[in-house]
Sequence to fold (98 residues):
Amino acid sequence: MKTLHQRRVANEIELLERTAALNPDKLRLTGRVIHLDRWQVDFELLASPALIRENGALVVATIHAAEIRLPRFFPAVPIEIYLKRAVFHPNADPENGF
Fold:
């Protein structure tokens, strides 16, 4: 029998796959990795404009690569989501993201 963690991870991945299938112009799943202590799902947000810093200037990018991490103790520990390239935010330090 699967553990709570295994069932929840499977459900989250299925939900992501269904969401991507229903929104192919907005979300593309690009990979899945199983680490020793967590699952990771890589994806791209499509048609999602945001400012990025490129060669010292702010430019608009519409595709953003990101990853969702489902930690070892999920669902007791929340999912983590990371953009692979920082986007500009006026309240975030461009050096450290905080």
Q: What stands out?
A: The chain has a mean pLDDT of 90.
